[in-house]
Amino acid sequence: MTAKKTILIIEDETFIVLGLRDALEFEGFHVVSAARGREGINLARQENPDAIILDLMLPDLNGYQVCEELRRWNSFVPILMLTARSQEIDKIRGLNAGADDYMTKPFSVGELIARLRAIFRRTARVSDATHDRFSIGSAEVDLTAHAVLRDGARHDLSFYEVELLRLLREKIGQPVARDEILSRVWGLEATSTNRTVDNCIVKLRRKIEAQPDRPSHILTVYGYGYKLVP
Ligand code: CA
Fold first, then answer.
1. Is 92 in the same domain as 109?
2. Is residue 93 domain-shared with residue 19, that is, in the same domain?
3. pLDDT higher for 99 or 129?
4. Do both 11 and 120 map to the same domain?
5. Which of 116, 129, 188, 196 is most deeply buried (CB count within 10 A of its CB)?
6. When comparing pLDDT for 189 and 91, which is higher?
């Protein structure tokens, strides 16, 4: 039994959101939505959705800006873009904003769901075959290979460093308590303490941060723990 996939809808037209929400929930997806671009970007970080349906015309940012911002945060999440006119699809392709698929309004909800399922089939095949990679600032992290590439240099990651990064990425942008890190990464190992976590963070910063003593991605949340900012 696989967990429900979460779909994030970023669209300000209420009737489209309601229609999509009903249809997607009926198909067994979990749906979250935002009516503005900024709110959508924040919600993406919080919810870590499996796919994003993004409208081109939003009240604050345009869809291209939102798409680029989402790509900076996560290079892999599938993005399906909605546009009002078919000419805009050419523009999206031309701009290479990072969308995986495009639909022109008015669209059939059935077709949108079919395309979403096609994207999931493609990404499932790709993620089986390739490595689990993501970027943090100028560093490219490859969890599968236990390595970080930054400025042309390769740094190996220990098992604990990989698991710690995996946990921080899962909660990206949110503070993670030292206690939670200890129990999730080190489990019941008797010798691990808060100091163990701090030492591991120091090592990760040396590999990932441009200025390890002034980190801008793996941040300390004083008196609590750490958080990852991509
Ligand atoms: Ca709109």
1. yes
2. yes
3. 99
4. yes
5. 116
6. 91
CA of 56 to the centre of ligand 1 (A): 6
Ligand 1 centre from 16 Cα, in Å? 9
145-203 confidence digits (pLDDT tens)? 788 988 888 888 888 899 899 999 999 999 999 999 998 888 766 677 888 999 999 99
Q: How far is the CA of 36 from the centre of ligand 1 (A)?
A: 9
Q: What is the pLDDT of residue 189?
A: 67
* Residue 3, token pair as written in the block: 């967990």
Residue 62 forms part of a structural domain: yes
Query: Containing domain of residue 63, as a range?
Result: 6-126
Distance from the CA of 18 to the center of ligand 1, in angstroms? 13
Write the CATH number for 142: 1.10.10.10
Output the DSSP codes for 6-55.
EEEEE-S-HHHHHHHHHHHHHTT-EEEEESSHHHHHHHHHHH--SEEEEE
Ligand 1: centre distance to CA 65 (Å):
14
H/E element holding 227?
Answer: strand 225-228
| 10/89 same-domain check | yes
- Quickly tell me which residue has 């290479």 as its tokens: 96
Query: pLDDT value at position 225?
Result: 96
Whole-structure pTM value:
0.57
- Domain-ending residue, one of 97, 126, 155: 126
Measured in angstroms, how far is the CA atom of residue 11 from the centroid of ligand 1? 5
Q: Identify whether residues 143 and 89 lie together within a single domain.
A: no
**Ligand 1 centre from 67 Cα, in Å?**
14
* Listed residue (79, 78, 48) closest to 64, CA to CA: 79
